[in-house]
Design brief:
This protein is of the alpha/beta class and 222 residues long. Helices cover 32% and strands 22% of the residues. It has a seven-stranded mixed β-sheet with strand order 3-2-1-4-5-7-6. Strand 4 (99-105), helix 4 (114-127) and strand 5 form a beta-alpha-beta unit. The longest helix has 15 residues, at 20-34.
């Protein structure tokens, strides 16, 4: 019988191995040029649905954790990263108020239900320090239409407004909400020079043209 973990391993390998080197280069720029404004070198950060570790391996933080249900994720993480192999909607093996930041990219849409999303948001809130932030990116269904369903394991459809509402219902305060941020996917997309990535980040008006992923930053109430 094929387990859920085996399926995840196959999906990750099929989608990401070919572009792994390029993805890592892109995320090095994203982590060090853009997301470092919320994750500082003295912080403790968890990468939720870490995949192959492109974010957590490249961000600068004193303590790094990564969570994923795919056991193969461990192989791609730096030696300094603590791996939590589990379902994100189950209780996290962390004390209350220990994380400065939780980061997640293109993950919430893969959860099987909104109940799972709610439980995950609750666990992140519990583990964040007062004033700590949850940074979430994901495909914005309002700009994608049919191409959203090109990925077999997409289940929940979200917009920046619906995810923002879910966060507020769990007690978060929304700090940043961008309906359009990055393009939809790097799979089967051109591999641009890194200077193009830097220029894209530097000119937010480009996001309005190419961006099909939302960006939200929400904080735990102090």
């Amino acid at each position: 019988m094929i387990t859920q973990e085996s399926k995840l391993s196959k999906i990750y390998h099929r989608r990401f191995v070919r572009t792994a080197t390029y993805r890592n280069r892109v995320w090095k720029v994203l982590a060090r040029v853009f997301f470092d404004r919320w994750v500082r070198p003295q912080h403790t950060v968890l990468d939720l649905g870490c995949g192959y570790g492109e974010f957590i391996n490249n961000i600068s933080a004193v303590s790094k954790l990564a969570m994923d249900l795919n056991p193969d994720a461990r192989k791609h993480l730096g030696a300094e990263v603590r791996f939590l192999h589990q379902n994100c909607s189950d209780p996290w093996p962390l004390p209350d108020s220990t994380l400065d930041a939780v980061f997640t990219s293109n993950f919430f849409e893969h959860l099987p239900s909104k109940d799972c999303l709610n439980l995950t948001l609750q666990q992140a809130y519990r583990c964040l320090k007062p004033g700590g932030c949850l940074i979430a990116m994901g495909p914005n269904i309002k700009y994608l239409h049919g191409e959203y369903w090109d990925f077999y394991d997409h289940h929940i459809y979200l917009t920046e407004a619906s995810l923002g509402e879910a966060m507020e219902l769990e007690g978060y305060e929304i700090e940043v909400i961008k309906p359009r941020f990055l393009p939809f996917t790097m799979i089967k997309a051109p591999e641009y020079p890194m200077i193009f990535v830097r220029l894209y980040l530097a000119f937010p008006w480009l996001w309005l043209i190419k961006g099909k992923q939302f960006l939200l930053v929400a904080r735990k109430r102090s």
